[in-house]
Amino acid sequence: MVLKRRPFLPFIILTITLAACAVEPQPQLTVPPIEEKTQISTPAPTLEPPVNMLSVCIGAEPSSLFLYGDASPSAQAIRQAIYDNPVNVLGVGVDPVILTQFPSQANGSVTILPVEVQPGTDVVDASGNLTYLTSGVEYRPAGCFSPECAQIYSGAGSVMVDQVVVRFELLENLRWSDGVPLTAADSVYSYQVAKALFSQFAPRSLRFTQTYWALDDQKIEWRGVPGYQGISAYTDHFFTPLPKHAWGVFTLNELLTTPNTTQRPLGWGPYVLDEWKVGDHISLHKNPHYFKATENFPYFDHISFRFVEGSEDALAAFLSGECDVVGGVEGLINDLDTLQGLEQEGELRVIFKEGLAWEQAAFGISSLDAQAGNLFQEQKTRQAIAKCVDREAVARGVGAAGQVANSYLPRAHPLNDLGNVYAFAPQEASRMLEEAGWVDGDQNPATPRLAAGVPGVADGVPLAFTYYVAGDAVPVAAEIIRDGLAQCGVEVTLVVQDAETLLAPGPEGTVFGRQFEMAQFAWSFGGESLCRLFMSSEIPGLYPEYSKGWGGGNAPGYSNPNFDAACNLALTSLPDAEETIQAHRAALAIFAEDVPVLPLYFRREVVLVKPGIVGPETGEFPLFWNLEEYIRVFE
Description:
The structure is a single chain. By secondary structure, the chain is an alpha+beta fold. It folds into three domains: 53-82 and 269-348 and 610-632, D-Maltodextrin-Binding Protein, domain 2, CATH 3.40.190; 86-252, Alpha-Beta Complex (Dipeptide-binding Protein, domain 1), CATH 3.90.76; 356-603, Dipeptide-binding Protein, Domain 3 (Dipeptide-binding Protein, domain 3), CATH 3.10.105.10. The chain has helices at residues 73-82, 184-197, 204-207, 244-247, 252-257, 259-262, 310-319, 336-344, 379-387, 391-397, 426-436, 476-486, 499-502, 561-571, 578-594; strands at residues 53-58, 87-90, 93-96, 110-117, 122-124, 130-132, 138-139, 151-152, 159-169, 209-214, 219-224, 271-277, 281-286, 302-307, 325-327, 349-363, 438-439, 450-451, 464-470, 491-497, 518-524, 597-609, 613-614, 631-632. The strands form seven sheets. The protein has a ten-stranded mixed beta sheet, sandwiched between helices. It has a four-stranded antiparallel beta sheet with strand order 4-9-11-10. Helix 10 packs antiparallel against helix 12 and helix 14 (561-571) runs antiparallel to helix 15. The two termini are 20 Å apart.
């Protein structure tokens, strides 16, 4: 639905009141003739200015706009209009929004304090795990910032451990959309709500928080559990404010269900919600109390989010003029050729956003499948397989329309300096396979190579394996991979499984039960901490041999002590320490060398924008993160 404001139609209502009254006769008055006709001018009616409105077509309709309710992409996108991100963060790149600065040790807003920890109290051990201080716990004493200086607790007396203290400062004159000042108490209230809601399954931001309080109306102090240093970003522990003055009377159940919080939430962002017509649209108007209003933000007076059913409906609405922007709609990437053709004709602009998932082809390095030959234990074999796959063709085949992945971090990430790895080189790959012991005896690529001296593989075993994919049909990417490997003398049999079976927990699940030779699936992007998924401690298997049991994420069964050490240092150190940055890069380099999985591509999302709309999305931030900056330069 497109909201169209009817034009203002001025009109004049003349009312003539006749009164019939009995009056005394009056003398006849003589009116002198008017020599000139006086022209009486009627002032032109004041017209209401035209409505400046942005119409956005978006995919699935959210179930709630409560901050701790619906976490779907559509809910998060719409909340960008109501709340505006407190901080925009990409790796080590930051853009504070409602904070005066991004906290760091350099500017003094982050301090490290030695504190005394008593036996039996909470502490974070040297591996970054939340535990109690008991005999045998390995911890980092005060002043220790690496595993080399860790100590084992003897069980007697207290110890001194470092505690991270972060101070956040809000901008002055922030106001909620009802005009009430936004203060530090609102952020503390949000922390209290989150703590109550997630009491059983607390996210990392809560688990490692010891205290969170307001120092005054603008300043908030966060203190971590003693020993905790593995912070991806200090702002991970800033809690997005909620309006305590309006919601403080609600119970937890009411916060999750009342329309005041789920359908008409108060925010400080560029827009205020007017109407939510279920199944059709959400409309909002400009927030007069927006803190950027003096900078003429937002440009549009009104904005509407219209819900569309799939890419066909979205494209039809866009081309008919009902939408200025389309985002968050699945399937648009499949119509990329059509969209780029329309772009060349000047009908639209296509903007690509990096998705929140990266596609990979995982090697079963230590498969538990009795029928598997453990073909991929050797690093050189995996490297050769990687060079046999034309990942550029894979990306084009699925409409990724961009650079392929070279690791578990996007290429734009500031920690990722790997460059172009796993370049498609089938001749070099064939040579590497020969060196690894995979011999093409008959010189016929149509038949698989045979093992001859491959460590851990019996001679004569063919280089042939099953390649699992999720879905209802074989995806294009898998077919391209199979055909490319065939040119190198590698025989691949594609097997399709539904996602529930393929990715079910072990021991039954194919992937996380380690019952595969090679499998293609996607991981959600979780920032720099993704290296954790490939640590030896994350290998799924029977407890206690495998510390995570079947809950581990390292499905390939990859294990390298050097990678473990680099990743552990990166995840247990302060984010703005040089050692942390170097540790992340070391982990990335080892990962690229060992190839436990073959990174294919980051899933991309298509955003359609009318040519006259300026303020396009970028791949680094959430959808519509810069919505207040959208402007219309021409019709």
